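Q: Here's a chain of 271 amino acids. Please give me its 3D structure as tokens.
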Amino acid sequence: MPESRPTAHPARAWHRHSRSERLARLILTLSVVAAVLASVRSVEVIPEFLLDAPEQVQDLLVRMWPINVGFYPSGVHDALVDTLHIATLGTLIAVALALPVGVLSARNLIRSRLINLAARLILVATRSVNSLIWALLFVAIFGPGALAGTLAIACRSIGFVGKLIGEAIEEADPGPIEALHAAGAPWLSVLSQGYWPQLAPTFWSVLLLRWDINIRESSVLGLVGAGGVGMALDTALNLFQWTRVSLILLSIFVIVILAEIIVTQIRKRIL
């Protein structure tokens, strides 16, 4: 009787993705392509303008040169200082308002679900509205000027700062907290001695980061009348004073770089 030989199985091919995963990726790719094509059709891109864009950019750069440096003392310096004041004061106001809201949003610290939801609603509402929209609102209420810009920066920053602080509180190590509770420490002592040492690095990081962001945002709020160097930029653009426009843009670039350097140096020393 001949010996039976084992049946040879065909070699199995290895695939990085399963059939269902490949199908899902194909559907996702087709959806993205369809969305891009629909967007291009809806925004009505004019090919002639795209082809003419390099020449227009070159012409604009020629108009911006040479930079009108002599305009800085009388037309840019004070507006640039106002921008720094708007960003700094707006950040401080935002931190003062965001701290209690962030504490109320932390579920491990405040056990009331209704209070948590109310605090989170405030955080979502303030950061979901762009700073330019806040600026338009406050310009309509208080009129053009730095006050509208400061309040716009503050309202925009509350949600950002409060959310990160609330999340840092929720991620705090419960060990020191439980030890303070076991020792009978009052609520404020638990907050200052148990939570704050763990929260401090996040707090300073968020404060510096938000101030850095607010300098960038406050530079353009003047385009809607909310004070700062943006108002000087808007005036120069409306009057087609391109050499002044280049000076203002250069000043904004320099102040943003300086703010980045300052924030980096402060972080190295306190964190």
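Q: Can you summarize the key feature?
A: The domain at 80-270 is CATH 1.10.3720.10 (MetI-like fold).
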